[in-house]
């Protein structure tokens, strides 16, 4: 596949440890983990794709490896890419997973 399989396994482990009910879907050339039928976290190539509170984007952009997701010339509100500098360590990946799960109850359902 076109996404990092090792990172996918790490995300599955992180979600399983938290006893999260999720569904993994291949989409956009990557892998997306759906929680409560909402896009929560995923992978595109070697980048982590995170869904967070849009009001906190400025704060998260200051963290290592974070950058806006921009598919169409306009950044997507509430979504960021995180490169390996921001998730290589388990603690860093766990922090991103927790942030995404914390926001998930407030996120709108994604259209499939």
Topology record:
Elements: H1 5-17, E1 22-27, E2 30-35, E3 38-44, E4 47-51, H2 57-60, E5 66-68, E6 79-82, H3 90-103
Antiparallel strand pairs: 1-2, 2-3, 3-4, 4-6, 5-6
Give the key terms.
single chain, 112 residues, alpha+beta, Aspartate Aminotransferase, domain 1, six-stranded antiparallel β-sheet, 6 strands, globular
Structural notes for this entry:
Strands 1-2-3-4-6-5 form a 6-stranded antiparallel beta sheet, covered by helices on one side. The chain has helices spanning 5-17, 57-60, 90-103, and strands spanning 22-27, 30-35, 38-44, 47-51, 66-68, 79-82. It has one domain (5-106): Aspartate Aminotransferase, domain 1, CATH 3.90.1150. The longest helix has 14 residues, at 90-103. It has 112 residues and is α+β, with helices and mostly antiparallel strands. The two termini are 20 Å apart. The model has no long low-confidence stretch (mean pLDDT 94).
CATH topology: Aspartate Aminotransferase, domain 1
In percent, how much strand structure appears in the residues?
25-35%
Could you name the ranges where pLDDT drops below 50 across 5 or more consecutive residues? none
Biggest sheet features: 6 strands, antiparallel
Residues in helix, %: 25-40%
The CATH architecture designation is Alpha-Beta Complex
The structure class reads alpha+beta
Distance between the termini: 20 Å
Helix and strand element order: HEEEEHEEH
Largest beta sheet: strand ordering: 1-2-3-4-6-5
Q: What form results from the Cα inertia axes?
A: globular
The average pLDDT value, as a whole number, equals: 94
Q: How many whole angstroms does the radius of gyration measure?
A: 13 Å
Q: In CATH, what is the class?
A: Alpha Beta
Number of helices: 3
How many discrete domains?
1
Number of E strands: 6
